[in-house]
Design goal:
The structure holds two protein chains of two kinds. Chain A is an alpha/beta fold. Chain A is built from 15 helices and 21 strands. In chain A, strands 9, 11, 14, 15, 16, 17, 18, 19, 20 and 21 form a ten-stranded mixed beta sheet that branches. A seven-stranded antiparallel beta sheet of chain A has the order 1-7-4-5-6-3-2, with no helix packed on it. A two-stranded antiparallel sheet of chain A has the order 8-10. Helix content of chain B is 32%, strand content 23%. Classes of the chains: A alpha/beta, B alpha+beta.
Chain lengths: 472, 585
Amino acid sequence: MKEYQTITEVSGPLVYVETDEPIGYDEIVEIETPNGDVKRGQVLESSDGFVAIQVFEGTEGVGKDASVRFLGETLKMPVTEDLLGRVLDGSGNPIDGGPDIVPDDRVDIVGEAINPHAREYPEEFIQTGVSGIDGMNTLVRGQKLPIFSGSGLPHSDLALQIARQASVPEEEAETDDDDEGSEFAVVFGAMGITAEEANEFMDDFERTGALERSVVFMNLADDPAVERTVTPRMALTTAEYLAFEKDYHVLVILTDMTNYCEALRQIGAAREEVPGRRGYPGYMYTDLAQLYERAGRIEGKEGSVTQIPILTMPGDDDTHPIPDLTGYITEGQIMMNRDLNSQGVTPPVNVLPSLSRLMDDGIGEGLTRADHGDVSDQLYAAYAEGEELRDLVNIVGREALSERDNRYLDFADRFEAEFIDQGFKTNRDIEETLDLGWELLSMFPKTELNRVDEDLIEDHYVEDVADEATAD
Amino acid sequence: MSQAEAITDTGEIESVSGPVVTATGLDAQMNDVVYVGDEGLMGEVIEIEGDVTTIQVYEETSGIGPGQPVDNTGEPLTVDLGPGMLDSIYDGVQRPLDVLEDEMGAFLDRGVDAPGIDLDTDWEFEPTVEAGDEVAAGDVVGTVDETVSIEHKVLVPPRSDGGEVVAVESGTFTVDDTVVELDTGEEIQMHQEWPVRRQRPTVDKQTPTEPLVSGQRILDGLFPIAKGGTAAIPGPFGSGKTVTQQSLAKFADADIVVYIGCGERGNEMTEVIEDFPELPDPQTGNPLMARTTLIANTSNMPVAARESCIYTGITIAEYYRDMGYDVALMADSTSRWAEAMREISSRLEEMPGEEGYPAYLAARLSEFYERAGYFENFNGTEGSISVIGAVSPPGGDFSEPVTQNTLRIVKTFWALDSDLAERRHFPAINWDESYSLYKDQLDPWFTDNVVDDWAEQRQWAVDILDEESELEEIVQLVGKDALPEDQQLTLEVARYIREAWLQQNALHDVDRYCPPEKTYAILSGIKTLHEESFEALDAGVPVEEITSIDAAPRLNRLGTTPDDEHEAEVAEIKQQITEQLRELY
């Protein structure tokens, strides 16, 4: 390995070096500063005799006298089952004071695309115990379902609730028959979150014993921003190893993707690239896709990778490039809502703009319950109508509305108070969620339920609720 | 992707930046296919400046560095054409994904190449010419049963000079065996090649007059597309672009479907791969896959191959058109294609146009959509390519460059609407914004083949919907009850048009496909409600009583009524509506 002391330029996170041998694109670099600090970086551009390096740990202390070593390989993550229960920094080094990691394998963190022909279509229902998700936006194994949130909203609590409660109902029934193979594991990748938030997560993991089956990657707010581009890839490489080599069902929580995208923009700006929308690089869609698409199931493999990335929408604007590009890649989104939050609804999930694209194949007879699809459609339609009428009420008042309209308004209120607002501690199974849905739907006369199959109405309609409503 | 015969020249890598590589000392022409680096990654020449050749590479370039070799094949990006393309799934440069899976497992590795059609499969060749016949370019010389649905026609290649047939084979052959020989010495095989960026020639382009029947009420009923037409489906995420595209791929009455998943989700392509072999084609009853070719370049697959997948798809479509088939091509999503162009362009440091897209964006889009049309082929047959492109505008804002440049070309516009999607009104196609410029030229077909007053009834529905959107503005201010009774009634009728007719459940076994006869019948039921209700109103019946008859809600169930029962059901509902309303006065 040759060492160079030929740095010609340092600019933000980037270092330019002259070389006299060919260097591979994406290759890993070590830079040693005169005072002995070793920083790692990656080749961003390689020309004859000249390379651009992106330094992960910040370029502080790097000058023309620093020496540069090219390691001749791309960035690898050491993987082993023993990573479970460990806490690592954003570059994959242990920070929990535990023993060194003895890897089974070292895997390239960029990851290769799963051949669509080798994928298995996700259709195994994951019960999160949250009605707004299970009933209305069902999560399935192998899905990528982000939480679109805003600053100051309790997205962390929701993510923790899901991590705590997530289960697959069928398997509970036959728990011990299942060999250890299909155990559940959580890979947690934190990018640029505050130490306080990090503590919240860690406390919850420790309190509930979840840490034992988790791998935690921590890049905190004061850690180098460039490292954030590596953290999720480390996390996903670990998740893929656990899922496809060790048969775990892995839930990956990535928070906060907004910080990740900021880091991308920072690098793009340092490289003087032509910026795309709002200064984010033009390749951000491709870059994000390379993360999000690393969820899924593979034919013939036991395990699965399910992703719940969290992002805070700047200004609560879902047309901002970060949520916008994310929404185009992920299979739906769970939207947190500020108004619901200030009304004290927990979790403040607004189901109307939320969506799970894989829901339809994961629910129904044999999977959840035969009436699930129809109930959810009808709840959506009714809540949307009620919500729309609220605007009108503000202008004309309730009295000016018909009995039918008033009923929809009542429904919307009860839907939020009873169906959505369940608290972060309540774990509802899917039966409970659907029965609650029927109780609310039964506020309407049967003829209003045009999204529900007539047979299902006969089976589930709660008669006395309708009587009460008309009696009022 | 067709396999290169020989290496014409070799150069050396000078620099690498993502998918863009420059090489020196390479003698190449624009769009030549080259193999890059020690691993032989496939790429295409996109710029030549002095001694420096710029290449876009179709695979990941990690670890590739200066000094490694670049081999030029001297040929443009070319697809393999021949039997075996249907029932296949390809990546963006026509490498069969099932073959790649066999060779490198579940994850896509680099540097593996495979021909687009299996060269070892035996096909039963049935000649349609005999020795002594004169044939010219494009003529059919024989047929092969490619799938249960499709008879593959073996054509004299478009660039051939033709000649007299001197020898004809019949029986079982692989695609590279010669099946017909001409007096010019030309040998014709089932296997042909064609460069993807060049349109395959035809005699003439004609005005399309036949609809591509989609089985979707809002499309056939309000905004039809012609066989040979072009359509765009723009919409924000979650508004149902992919579901609409897939419904069209499943139920449109095309002979051949080419489905391009361009920069979209892996799981979506898997869904298609799993569903299509199971689902029956409503025209033939055979599995849908028997008429379908899939091209999957998912969002995490190399970006340069995303740029090429659109061309790969349309070239395959043109080849089947040459046989006289009606081909429907779905491109989901053309925005990802445009973004791939933008990404490559920005790596080349080209002067950007609007929003960073290259200045040639509009030209590329129109070149692509112009490859659609209703054509007269050289062999005398007529074939068509209908192109339906999804557009994913950032933030759902239709004023962005890809949507705008697409709208200047396409003649059908199906605008998806996030408000409708949030209310779970699917397909979430906004009836105020959408349009079809084919309506007038297709009406004669509907009149001849479905019903006489197809156009009149559609106009009635459009008028009611227009009136509704005007009234809705007033309702927003004063509430519904403040409106005069006749207007309240119009709103009620419009609600039935929306809920019983425009809405369609793509997941329901019956409702997902609605033949034009049923589309007409459901609407005629609502029209009866309209006419009878107004009769009753004129006779002095209060509007609450009119709207509370129990026959009307049954209209909402018509979508899910089986196709063979709907006629009787509609007739019965009409009769009951009439009876119940007339009882009121």
